[in-house]
Design brief:
The chain has helices spanning 8-19, 74-77, 81-102, 138-158, 182-192, 211-222, 242-253, 277-283, 291-307; strands spanning 2-3, 24-28, 47-51, 64-67, 105-111, 162-167, 170-171, 196-199, 205-207, 209-210, 232-234, 239-241, 259-262. By secondary structure, the protein is α/β, with parallel strands linked by helices. The chain is globular and about 55 Å long. The chain binds nicotinamide-adenine-dinucleotide and uridine-5'-diphosphate (2 copies).
Length: 310
């Protein structure tokens, strides 16, 4: 079972699970997801999708849950911050309750945002983070932190097989053109010949992981023995400034777009780069798709999408 199945990462995960011969139940309330992301899977005899909001109880049968339901882009998770926090907290309680009842393993899609605006240049799982609990990003960051607490306490209190991965910025086909995150924004702006909007001075950094690599990491984590709980960082540890990303995308699209500055959003982390030593040793995992290749595939996706009438 995959919650958030109609979203960007969820749809890729469903596709990969079906390719491997599993029966898959996708659950989504279509808050930020879209049916279009699942269009190619709907006819698959082993796939079923259910419209459901995970803040409500859910009684189904499953042996493995990937809990990905949650808006992930700042503009979307800040649109209805109370709902975002409910999705992380009430949603986690319901999915953990379900996992407990049926004896399923459950993998939580946590985030590098639990580290907040980090002090260490490279963030390892041992770092506890620096999060503003009352800022505009807190509905997401603190929600994901509370979900990690719930996953840890269901393991301690009920012996549940809970697993946490902390996902760093991931990109690829099936992001929404209006998603608001940096890779999709810059590519769509470049393809439309619109100005590329850099927030702040553009010297803030991120490290971008292509979606197929991320999905591989999620699967490997789900197959670890019951005693493995994480958290485990999953990301591509090649750090790049936002300005360099913009220049890269302008070159790769051959766009005539100019670069413009926009105000830096509140609490925007200045740096972010994963330490993936644990993922390497525990899961034998590391990314295989470099930024150039991943961006080129993503640009191809958006080029086709923007040329297709809705
Ligand atoms: P997304 O917005 O494309 O997908 C999230 C999906 O969850 C959407 O289909 C949405 O409709 C669904 N959803 C939201 N609230 C729900 C609810 N209450 N009940 C049922 N469904 C609900 O985002 P994504 O990038 O695919 O992210 C998937 C997960 O991975 C999220 O939990 C996100 O926090 C996490 N994550 C993603 C990234 C990234 O860079 N993409 C980084 C860190 C963590
Ligand atoms: N729950 C669910 N599906 C199930 C079992 C439980 O959605 O198959 C929800 C239910 O709403 C419950 C929550 O998960 O309140 C937590 O379940 P748990 O058994 O941990 O605690 P309870 O609240 O039942 O004591
Ligand atoms: N960003 C930007 N222009 C945009 C969108 C985002 O400069 O049009 C910046 C944003 O301020 C942040 C970085 O790009 O510093 C990554 O933003 P995103 O929303 O993709 O993810 P997150 O901040 O959650 O890592």
């Amino acid at each position: 079972m995959v919650t958030g199945a109609a979203g960007f990462i969820g749809s890729h995960l469903c596709e990969r699970l079906l390719d491997e011969g599993h029966e898959v139940l996708g659950v989504d309330n279509y808050y930020t997801g879209s049916r279009r992301n699942l269009a190619d899977l709907l006819a698959h005899p082993m796939f079923e999708v259910m419209r459901h909001d995970i803040t409500m109880p859910l009684y189904v049968e499953t042996d493995l849950i990937f809990n990905l339901a949650c808006p992930a882009s700042p503009i979307h998770y800040q649109r209805d911050p109370v709902q975002t926090l409910k999705t992380s907290v009430h949603g986690a309680i319901n999915m953990l309750g379900l996992a407990k009842r049926v004896g399923a393993s459950i993998v939580q899609a946590s985030t590098s945002e639990v580290y907040g605006d980090p002090e260490p240049a490279v963030q390892a799982e041992s770092y506890w983070g620096r999060v503003n609990p009352i800022g505009t990003r807190a509905c997401y960051d603190e929600g994901k932190r509370a979900a990690e607490t719930l996953f840890s306490d269901y393991r301690r209190q009920h012996g549940s097989d809970t697993k946490i991965v902390r996902i760093f910025n991931t990109y690829g086909p099936r992001m929404r053109p209006d998603d608001g995150r940096v890779v999709s924004n810059f590519i769509v702006q470049a393809l439309r010949g619109e100005p590329i909007t850099i927030y702040g001075d553009g010297v803030q950094t991120r490290a971008f992981c292509y979606v197929s690599d991320l999905v591989e990491g999620l699967l490997r984590m789900s197959r670890t023995p019951g005693e493995v709980s994480g958290p485990v960082n999953l990301g591509n540890p090649v750090e790049i400034t936002v300005r360099a990303l913009a220049e890269h995308i302008i070159a790769a699209t051959g766009s005539a777009s100019t670069i413009v500055s926009r105000p830096l959003p509140e609490d925007d982390p200045r740096q972010r780069c994963p330490d993936i030593s644990l993922a390497k040793s525990l899961l034998g995992w590391e990314p295989t798709v470099d930024l150039e290749t991943g961006l080129s595939r993503t640009i191809d996706y958006f080029r086709t999408l923007l040329a297709t009438p809705v």
